[in-house]
Amino acid sequence: MDHKLSPELEDLRRTVEQFAHDVVAPKIGDFYERHEFPYEIVREMGRMGLFGLPFPEEYGGMGGDYLALGIALEELARVDSSVAITLEAGVSLGAMPIHLFGTEEQKRTWLPRLCAGEMLGAFGLTEPDGGSDAGATRTTARLDETTGEWVINGTKCFITNSGTDITGLVTVTAVTGRKPDGGPRISAIIVPSGTPGFTVAAPYSKVGWNASDTRELSFSDVRVPAANLLGEEGRGYAQFLRILDEGRIAIAALATGLAQGCVDESVAYAKERHAFGRPIGANQAVQFKIADMEMKAHTARLAWRDAASRLVAGEPFKKEAALAKLYSSTVAVDNARDATQIHGGYGFMNEYPVARMWRDSKILEIGEGTSEVQRMLIARELGLVS
Ligand SMILES: Cc1cc2nc3c(=O)[nH]c(=O)nc-3n(C[C@H](O)[C@H](O)[C@H](O)COP(=O)(O)OP(=O)(O)OC[C@H]3O[C@@H](n4cnc5c(N)ncnc54)[C@H](O)[C@@H]3O)c2cc1C
């Protein structure tokens, strides 16, 4: 692995860095305070091609890969995680399942608008009775042979991007039958927004990611055409494991960005804030804290880029993705706590970006597989079976 980004990726990094600094940073705090989705910023991200980064040009994508997506996510999250998670979920959970498992017709129907950021897609896996244990899915889909439609019933919770004005679809996992051993056959089905019986609840009141959209969804005899099945019937479980493996690299890049953003803010503050007649950054205790924060952000970056490089090269990456997600989310929480401490009382004021980073960091240890689930995966990859 080359430690340098290619000239194209470095250009992308600089472009997103500039956008985050010039467009996102000055505006996002107000959206966050109002718990409001920043449509204009997301539209601009769409115009820049960010939602199409890892998709082929023939479907409206930019022809890049997961490294490119990670670079963009890291730079956005250095400044704000709400817009970063909107991009992450739109690409990794909304569009990627259609790209990886969709029919040609499904790709042509959905991908161009998803890649342009004119439409957002969501992925509904988690249910009120279980997220980590996704095999325990209770939502059902029955094929009505007379009408040729899936009839879906159930509830999904905590679904990102599922209720914005530009949400076009949610791919849901549902039990579509039983295996000979009695276990569930899980399938993934595309449900367009506005389908009768598909209800989107009001946004949750969240601790963080307050300028992103998260909702509970309910399905009551929701009918969609049989052709909305995504991939093979009964293969939904294997499909979403693949989606989550990839998504972990994206979350790791996002977490690295948050960890780096904490360093950026802390260095600036430590130089300008004075106590006892000198900048607080002249104290070794503060310097060492920031040095450790930089070490953690740097190492997290190496971890997610390593996992992404393996994915792009077509090599196994499951363990590396779990390691990157576990490590980067841990250090994002560490750095957010330390950055807040360096800011003293101001770190507890929402007008300071580090306060937002502190609130946004915790979910990184929970979403797309908790830290415990990452440890389970790593242990399994090491051959340990419980
Ligand atoms: C803001 C937000 C956005 C989200 N977006 C989406 C989305 O777009 N789509 C989607 O499908 N989901 C989404 N989620 C759901 C998220 O992925 C789940 O919350 C997460 O996977 C954990 O599931 P759970 O909440 O059911 O916790 P549980 O699975 O109930 O876990 C509770 C605790 O028990 C631990 N635990 C469980 N099993 C074990 C075990 N075997 N060994 C040790 N510890 C264990 C867990 O690690 C955790 O600490 C989102 C969540 C949030 C908060």
Automatic annotation (TrEMBL):
<feature type="domain" description="Acyl-CoA dehydrogenase/oxidase C-terminal">
    <location>
        <begin position="234"/>
        <end position="382"/>
    </location>
</feature>
<dbReference type="InterPro" id="IPR013786">
    <property type="entry name" value="AcylCoA_DH/ox_N"/>
</dbReference>
<feature type="domain" description="Acyl-CoA dehydrogenase/oxidase N-terminal">
    <location>
        <begin position="6"/>
        <end position="118"/>
    </location>
</feature>
<dbReference type="Pfam" id="PF00441">
    <property type="entry name" value="Acyl-CoA_dh_1"/>
</dbReference>
<dbReference type="InterPro" id="IPR009100">
    <property type="entry name" value="AcylCoA_DH/oxidase_NM_dom_sf"/>
</dbReference>
<keyword id="KW-0285">Flavoprotein</keyword>
<feature type="domain" description="Acyl-CoA oxidase/dehydrogenase middle">
    <location>
        <begin position="122"/>
        <end position="222"/>
    </location>
</feature>
<keyword id="KW-0560">Oxidoreductase</keyword>
<dbReference type="Pfam" id="PF02770">
    <property type="entry name" value="Acyl-CoA_dh_M"/>
</dbReference>
<dbReference type="InterPro" id="IPR006091">
    <property type="entry name" value="Acyl-CoA_Oxase/DH_mid-dom"/>
</dbReference>
<dbReference type="InterPro" id="IPR036250">
    <property type="entry name" value="AcylCo_DH-like_C"/>
</dbReference>
<dbReference type="InterPro" id="IPR009075">
    <property type="entry name" value="AcylCo_DH/oxidase_C"/>
</dbReference>
<dbReference type="GO" id="GO:0016491">
    <property type="term" value="F:oxidoreductase activity"/>
</dbReference>
<dbReference type="Pfam" id="PF02771">
    <property type="entry name" value="Acyl-CoA_dh_N"/>
</dbReference>
<keyword id="KW-0274">FAD</keyword>
<dbReference type="InterPro" id="IPR006089">
    <property type="entry name" value="Acyl-CoA_DH_CS"/>
</dbReference>
<comment type="similarity">
    <text>Belongs to the acyl-CoA dehydrogenase family.</text>
</comment>
<protein>
    <submittedName>
        <fullName>Acyl-CoA dehydrogenase family protein</fullName>
        <ecNumber>1.-.-.-</ecNumber>
    </submittedName>
</protein>
<dbReference type="InterPro" id="IPR037069">
    <property type="entry name" value="AcylCoA_DH/ox_N_sf"/>
</dbReference>
<dbReference type="InterPro" id="IPR046373">
    <property type="entry name" value="Acyl-CoA_Oxase/DH_mid-dom_sf"/>
</dbReference>
